[in-house]
Amino acid sequence: MFDTMTMTKVVGALCGSLLVFLLGGWAAQALYSTGGGHGEGATQAYTIDTGADAPVEAAVEGPSFEELYASADAAAGEKVFSKCRACHKVDGSNSTGPHLDGVVDRAKAHVEGFGYSDVLVGMAEESWTPENLDAFLANPKKYAPGTKMSFAGLPKPADRANLIAWLATQP
């Protein structure tokens, strides 16, 4: 069945197919090439503006935290606290997180009976000033890498200022 003539035909068919494939690729490259042979002044037929060449505008900064905190609304902060209520209490007892009674200007990692992460224990000499709380509430994982707090943070500066103002009213 497989004599010399059959094997020659099979090898010839494979070589012919490869030749057609290579010639087809060469022809396609010649037809669809955008460069070569067009001279120095040749440009692309059209371009898509991606905005990469546009100057980067500086982000518009809002009011500073001090200005927001000075005009903060504690009643609105109590509503924002609903996001915190799943893990924190303000009745003096710990839950998943430590209680937040008197947290503003309290020393960090000083609630009795709560197991703080090592990074917050390392910050125990500092206190929770409104500015520190603002930075922590914006992004807890960035402020204290390795913290046990799984909350992603409050992205709106006004919400953070209102919450801190409300927490400052808690004894």
SSE topology:
Blueprint: H1 4-32, H2 65-70, H3 74-80, H4 118-122, H5 130-138, H6 140-143, H7 157-168
Question: What would your notes on this structure say?
Answer:
The chain is an all-alpha fold and 171 residues long. The chain has helices spanning 4-32, 65-70, 74-80, 118-122, 130-138, 140-143, 157-168. Helix 3 crosses helix 7. The model has no long low-confidence stretch (mean pLDDT 87).
Mean pLDDT: 87
Kindly state the number of beta strands.
Answer: 0
Q: So what's the overall shape?
A: elongated
Number of helices: 7
Portion of residues in beta strands equals: under 5%
Q: Fraction of residues in helices?
A: 40-55%
Largest sheet: none
The poorly predicted ranges are none
Radius of gyration: 34 Å
Q: Write the H/E string, N to C.
A: HHHHHHH
What class do helices, strands and sheet pairing give? Answer: mainly alpha
- Alpha-carbon distance between the termini? 98 Å
